[in-house]
Amino acid sequence: MGRRILALMIKEFLAILRDKKSRVVIFVPPLIQVLVFGYAATFDLKHVPYAMFNEDSSTVSRELEAGFRGSPNFKEVARILRHSQIASLIDRKDVLMVLHIGPEFSRDMAMGRPAIIQVIVDGRNSNTALLTLNYAKTVITSFNNEFAAANGRTGPPARLETRAWFNPNLESRWFIVPGIVGLLLLVVTILVTALSVAREREQGTFDQLLVTPFRPAEILIGKALPGFIIGVGEATVIILITVFWFRVPLQGNVATLYAGVVLFLFSSVGVGLMISSLSATQQQGLLGAFLFVVPAIILSGFTTPIANMPHLIRQITYLNPMRYFMIIIRGVFLEGTPFSMLIGQFWPLAAIGLFNMVLAGWMFRRRL
């Protein structure tokens, strides 16, 4: 049995590697996507374009201006001299923010009265607007503390000090890039396995496979193992890029991480084989893979927290293997979560994989 499965695996590998399109799909897109997502998919804002409207022009107001110019999050692109210029700059999206310092700013600061600073933000993108406001608050708070210290004044009676665990610099890349590992593994594994049986039917070699001594279970295993091995190789490459290129710290145990990878691939291969057993052509296999992958990514917590989803949708996510893998990989990378604390994520992956493999085998025998 082992020799027959090995022979079928070699045949499957040769069929994948001889096809130029298959080689490109397996190796090129994951490398491009991990680099593109790693740099492009970020919640951080750099060099936010803003306009300065300073009606005070005192030493104190210029110090506040210097705080914004020295921040890596902001970039001054315009100076405003009249109120009428504000609306046109924001309407044309020339700036995301206008900082308005009133004419009484320095006098109010000297007399200890509240000095008003107006921050006008383009709110068409609410997430960007909130991030811009938070960055502006950080610069203004730093200015207040430095002014109070320089003039011998005491700060506010209560001061908020924050500390972010597991991601001290709040780099969104640390959150996004580990999730890309799961995204790319799901896409590649589903595509490879979903097209395996469909390719045989479309090329007319499936009937030849049926007259061989292979049993249905052996054919199923022979079709599953190449996708599984390719997935482990893809995972290794992407994890190395994540750690050594993007400098995302791997706090946990590598064995724990690969336990999650293996179980996730097991469940994904099962889904791919189930799609493949139902598909008569490669086009149907691609369509089936697309119909599964897109909802799986959306309902995985990759970008949107599952806790924010409606109750019914949250219940559906328990059927999604990528949901559990997102918790595993982010936990191992950022928190150093040990194996024992991830058992609650491991066993659902194993159960989903086993169910899908059994169902795929039943469908495969029925189609025979």
Protein traits:
single chain; 368 residues; alpha/beta; abc type-2 transporter like fold; 2 domains; four-stranded mixed sheet; 15 helices; 66% helix
Distance between the termini: 20 Å
The number of distinct structural domains comes to: 2
* Overall geometric form: elongated
> How many strand elements?
4
Structural class: alpha/beta
Radius of gyration: 28 Å
Number of helices: 15
Strand order of the largest sheet: 2-1-3-4
Mean pLDDT: 81
Helix content: 55-70%
Poorly predicted spans: none
Summarize it:
By secondary structure, the protein is α/β, with parallel strands linked by helices. It has helices spanning 2-18, 20-40, 59-69, 84-91, 105-110, 126-150, 172-194, 196-203, 206-210, 216-245, 254-278, 282-298, 311-317, 321-335, 343-367, and strands at 48-54, 74-79, 97-101, 117-121. The protein has 15 helices and four strands.
